[in-house]
Design brief:
Layout (H helix, E strand, L loop, with lengths): L3 H5 L9 H16 L5 H12 L8 E4 L6 H9 L10 E4 L3 H9 L5 E5 H9 L4 E8 L3 E5 L14 E5 L4 H12 L9 E5 L2 H9 L5 E5 L2 H10 L3 H4 L4 E5 H9 L8 E6 L6 H20 L1 H11 L5 H10 L2 E5 H18 L16
Parallel strand pairs: 1-2, 1-3, 6-7
Antiparallel strand pairs: 3-10, 4-10, 4-11, 5-8, 5-9
Length: 357
């Protein structure tokens, strides 16, 4: 450290030994040394302050799902105002829109499924994964409370949103590991969005649907609410796919499903990325501690969600912001599972070191 150089070069003077001179110098530095405990915080503040504010609003984008809640809070709380005044949240509603914005610089930081991030990276899209925060949010919602395992749904019609994306991918992976054929042993009714699947459930056109949170909570609330409850069936949480993951693959019941990604021109700005990573973790903690207030904020930005459903989903959430490098072993296990069956889902190979911010 630079503070050591003057001490090691102090010449003997006034009859003092080198050791005595060093002692006197250290005593002279004592008032400054008393401030060292605050140095890490001051250094971080200085680093943040040195980043010039952007000359345009920062765009944070995510889906109508739990992974987006902290992004909404980051915007509403003004936590980024010193480096990104006027930051705004932008909703993406389907995987095609997500991919288009990632490729065409439609947003700066995007919440997205982990396999989509890996696929885009392997195709040369400039991006870096900052964290994984969603570790399980998919449920089979059913009219039949007795169906508690994937095997119980064999031969059944299931509404499935987002063909060839995360819900469909995980269902197929787990069914295959059970020795079942997703295409022959189930009747999968693919629909554009989870909200389309909810409509099919509420109008009794299907008995089961695979849904993410907060769509699960919305479906359960709507089926119990007047006047919908007059015609809607009673619905139940059937299979938690995270628990199925743990049981079938003999692992912890946690799936590295989604996280925050830096994309486009700012993806290599390490200082801004670290600021977003820390801010996201803080905002996630706030959301988990304040479900009602979070629900009200999210519903203002994502009108198709209700505050009550968002609050309900937080009670079920397995949300924990884990830095990308720390999450890498679990991500690579998941990616290898996909590479074994459908390598195109992650771009044909494991992403290299540059993927992990």
């Amino acid at each position: 450290m630079s503070s050591r150089s003057p001490l090691t070069s102090i010449p003997p003077s006034g009859g003092l030994s080198v050791r005595g001179a060093r002692r006197r110098a250290l005593l002279g530095l004592a008032p400054a040394l008393g401030l060292l405990s605050a140095a890490p915080a001051r250094a971080q503040q200085a680093a943040d302050a040195s980043a010039a504010p952007l000359d345009r609003p920062l765009v944070l984008s995510g889906p109508p799902a739990t992974v987006s809640y902290p992004l909404v809070h980051l915007v509403d709380s003004g936590a980024l105002n010193d480096v990104a005044p006027g930051a705004r949240f932008q909703l993406w509603q389907n995987p095609d829109q997500l991919r288009a914005w990632a490729v065409r610089d439609g947003a700066d930081f995007m919440a997205m499924p982990s396999n989509v991030a890996a696929n885009l990276y392997n195709q040369g899209v400039p991006l870096r994964l900052l964290n994984v925060s969603t570790w399980g949010m998919l449920w089979l919602v059913t009219r039949d409370a007795s169906r508690r395992t994937l095997e119980d749904f064999r031969g059944q019609e299931i509404a499935m949103p987002f063909r060839a994306d995360m819900p469909d991918i995980l269902f197929g992976l787990l069914a295959t590991r059970l020795g079942l054929d997703p295409k022959r042993d189930f009747s999968l009714r693919h629909v554009p969005t989870p909200f389309d699947a909810i409509q099919l459930l509420l109008t009794r056109r299907v008995d089961h649907a695979l849904l993410p949170e907060p769509a699960v909570s919305m479906a359960l609330r709507k089926s119990d609410s007047f006047p919908v409850s007059i015609v809607a069936p009673t619905l139940y949480r059937g299979v938690d796919l995270s628990q199925a993951w743990g049981r079938i693959l003999e692992r912890e019941p946690r799936i590295p499903q989604a996280g925050l990604v830096a994309v486009g021109p700012l993806h290599a700005d390490a200082r801004l990325a670290d600021r977003l990573r820390r801010g996201y973790a803080d905002s996630l903690a706030w959301c988990l501690a304040h479900p009602q207030e979070c629900g009200e904020a999210v519903a203002r930005h994502i009108p198709m969600l209700t505050p009550e459903a968002v609050a309900d989903s937080i009670a079920q959430a397995r949300e924990r912001a884990v830095d990308a490098r720390e999450a890498r072993p679990e991500l690579e296990y998941f990616f290898r599972c996909l590479l074994d069956g459908q390598p195109a889902l992650v771009g044909g190979r494991l992403p290299d070191d540059g993927f992990y911010a």
